[in-house]
Amino acid sequence: MSEIINNREYRQKILKELIGELHKGKTVDEVKPRFEKLIEGIDATEIAQMEQALIMEGMPVEEIQRLCDVHAAVFKGSIEEIHRPTKPEDTPGHPVHTFKLENTAIERLIKERIQVHLQEFKADDNPENLAKLTEDINALWQIDKHYLRKENLLFPFMEKYGITAPPKVMWGVDDEIREDIKAIKNMLKHYNGEKDVLLERINNTINRVTEMIFKEENILFPMVLETLSEDEWLKIEEESGEIGYTLIDVKTKWKPVRVNVEEKAEEEGEKPSNDGYIKFETGVLTPEEINGIFNTIPLDITFVDKDGFVKYFSQGKERIFPRTKAAIGREVKNCHPPASVHIVEKIVEDLKSGKKENEDFWIKMGDKYVYIRYFAVRDEKGEFLGIMEVTQNIKPIQEITGEKRLVSD
Predict the structure, then answer these.
(1) Residues contacting 109, CB < 8 A, separation 6+
(2) Nearest Cα to 388, choosing from 397, 396, 398, 378?
(3) What is the CA radius of gyration of the chain?
(4) Over the stretch 170-226, which tens digit does the pLDDT of each residue have?
(5) Tens digits of per-residue pLDDT, 278-321?
(6) What is the distance between the alpha carbons of residues 310 and 292, in angstroms, rounded to a whole number?
(7) How far is CA 315 from the centre of its chain?
(8) Which DSSP string do the residues of 329-379 spell out, in sequence order?
(9) Angstrom distances, CA of residue 112 to CA of 143, 146, 184, 213, 274
(10) How far apart are alpha carbons 51 and 58 in whole angstroms?
(11) pTM here?
(12) b vs e for 309-333, b when ≥16 Cβ sit within 10 Å of the residue's Cβ?
């Protein structure tokens, strides 16, 4: 462990030196080999963490921004693909799938229209060619919606996980690109014959747009796919339409995979008992009474069946961790950010195998002191039925002192 820490400290020191060299005027090509060696074997998330640490030490975001071009130059050939058991980003309607479709459309606009019309304008800056170029740049301005969704829907979730430096840096570059496009639109509107200046400005801007696409697809998207939970992606997808899309129509709604727990129960031979009562070893209860009891006890209960699907949760008046009915039928591992899935899977494995009968955690949440317990649930023969999660705010209980023997008024 200490070896890992030391490696990170070393990489951070080198990263700081590289930024200093860029600040003094070295080119991307000059620092690229050292940066390439520095990031060998590590993923985009650790690089982001190093940059975040430098900002926490007081380095201005603008200095970190100098690394953007080095990222693009190096990652084109060396970044490791982050393998995932499934690829939700390949599913139509998933926010990352939509971002990538937009990037493809932007690249097509640049290649098939802007670059073609630039050559025609370079040969003859007549009004017709000026109009074509104006139409192209107006279309490119739609990139504002792509950036707005990234900044207003995606970045807040990154900041929630403490990833603040990459969004700041990327937002700064987005703003610069926006300003470049606005300036070009103004130059086209008031064209006064400065053809070479205009051509250079457009070429520089489309290069920056292309570099941003590369940074998104090779740094940003792998990082957030490794961080955000399925529910958070769903939230982004639901709110994306309000901002709109760049150069594409999105007609497909992304729906995470769910299992119909009622059909699953019937397939496994279980039958509903809604019309009668349930007989227990210690008495009988109607389904209505069972529902009322579970919703009244001062605990939040969630039950995950033996196959790992959320099958039930109680609906107490003061639930600590909100649940929606959309959670029913989800695989429990999809209820957590990918980075913590291995912890969830370890808990499930230990409880299912019998290595442990329960696992407990306690955390502070605002004015609450939350006790979280996971129990293996087994039948009378010891067969594993699933896992019960119980959460409770124990702060009021901890504060109890003395005795209370009289009924309150």
Answers:
(1) 136, 139, 140, 247
(2) 378
(3) 28
(4) 999 999 999 999 999 999 999 999 999 999 999 999 999 999 999 999 889 988 988
(5) 888 899 999 899 999 999 999 999 999 999 888 999 998 878 87
(6) 20
(7) 28
(8) T-BGGGGS-GGGHHHHHHHHHHHHHTS-SEEEEEEEETTEEEEEEEEEEE-
(9) 17, 20, 19, 17, 63
(10) 11
(11) 0.60
(12) bbbebbebeeeeeeeeeebbbbbbb
**Residue 23 DSSP SS3:** helix
The amino acid at 116: V
The answer for 269, left when phi > 0, alpha when psi is -120 to 50, beta otherwise, is left
Instruction: Report residue 321 as tokens.
Output: 């961790």
The closest alpha carbon to 173, from 49, 68, 31, belongs to: 68
Number of residues written out for the chain: 409
C-alpha span between 111 and 215 (Å, rounded): 19
Cα–Cα dist 88/214, whole Å: 20
Across the beta sheet with 384-393, what order do the strands follow? Answer: 310-313, 300-305, 384-393, 368-378, 358-365
Distance CA 234, CA 255 (A): 8
One-letter amino acid of 361: F
Show the tokens assigned to 269: 């031979």
And the tokens for 287?
A: 């389904």
User: Which residues are CB-contacts of 268 (< 8 A; sequence separation ≥ 6)?
Assistant: none
